Each structure stands twice: as structure tokens, then as C-alpha cells.
Amino acid sequence: MQSDQYSYLPILMQLILAVGFVVGTIIISGKLGPKRTSEIKDKNFECGIESVGNARIPFSVKYFLVAILFVLFDVEVIFLYPWAVNFKELGIEGMLKMIVFMSLLLVGFFYIIKKKALDWE
């Protein structure tokens, strides 16, 4: 029974080391880091271009919807790669499962086209 508990010891040691490293880095950077501030250093900076206007402008929900749909269908298409690599070993059963998967993918794709989720207004 004790051998099972000792097998978790490396995981516990790694967890303690990771948390200790993060906490130690935060404490050391707070004490040793530079504390000089100025108007130029505190200014917003992005890609060499000075910021203009407010960064809190509202985005259309359509933008986020298209991004989420892209990620969703992109992840689903990633599942095609292992199937294509093992195509011969999976046989007819694998082919039938992939037909079901692709049909569900196409049904979802046609659904979002019907709902006009990808149309910009």
C-alpha cells in the first residue's frame, strides 16, 4: 500500500518546485526590478505606433461569433488527419464512422450558412 503513495512523490515534488519558482520569481522581480517611472515609460505602446483614441471601443458580436465558428470547424477538421493516416488499417468500419462524422460536420456547416452567421452586415 505504501509503494502506491510513494509513486506520487515525484509529482508532489514537481508541483512544489513549480509553485516555488513562480512565487520566488514574483517576489524577486518586485524587490530587484527598477522602480523609476516617467510619463514616457507609462505611455501605451503597441507595434511602434502611438495609441489613438480609447481602446474600449465595442466590437460587434458577429466578429466573435465568426472567430468561435472558425475555431470550432478548424478543430473538427484536425480530426481528419489521423483518419487519413490510418485509412487502410481502419477498414470499412472506419470509413463508415468518418462518413457519419463528415455528414454531421456538413450539417452544422449548412446550418450556420442558413442562419447567415458568416454574413457581414
UniProtKB/TrEMBL annotation:
It is found in: Cell membrane; Membrane. It comes from the Bacteria. GO terms for cellular component: NADH dehydrogenase complex; plasma membrane. It is an enzyme of class 7 (translocase). GO terms for molecular function: NADH dehydrogenase (quinone) (non-electrogenic) activity; NADH dehydrogenase (ubiquinone) activity; quinone binding. Keywords: Cell membrane, Membrane, NAD, Quinone, Translocase, Transmembrane, Transmembrane helix, Transport. Its main location: membrane. Its EC number is 7.1.1.-. It catalyses: a quinone + NADH + 5 H(+)(in) = a quinol + NAD(+) + 4 H(+)(out). It holds the Pfam family Oxidored_q4. The chain crosses the membrane at residues 6-28, 63-83, 95-113. It is a multi-pass membrane protein. PANTHER family: NADH-QUINONE OXIDOREDUCTASE SUBUNIT A, NADH-UBIQUINONE OXIDOREDUCTASE CHAIN 3. NDH-1 is composed of 14 different subunits. Subunits NuoA, H, J, K, L, M, N constitute the membrane sector of the complex. NDH-1 shuttles electrons from NADH, via FMN and iron-sulfur (Fe-S) centers, to quinones in the respiratory chain. The immediate electron acceptor for the enzyme in this species is believed to be a menaquinone. Couples the redox reaction to proton translocation (for every two electrons transferred, four hydrogen ions are translocated across the cytoplasmic membrane), and thus conserves the redox energy in a proton gradient. Belongs to the complex I subunit 3 family. This is NADH-quinone oxidoreductase subunit A. It comes from Flavobacterium hydrocarbonoxydans.
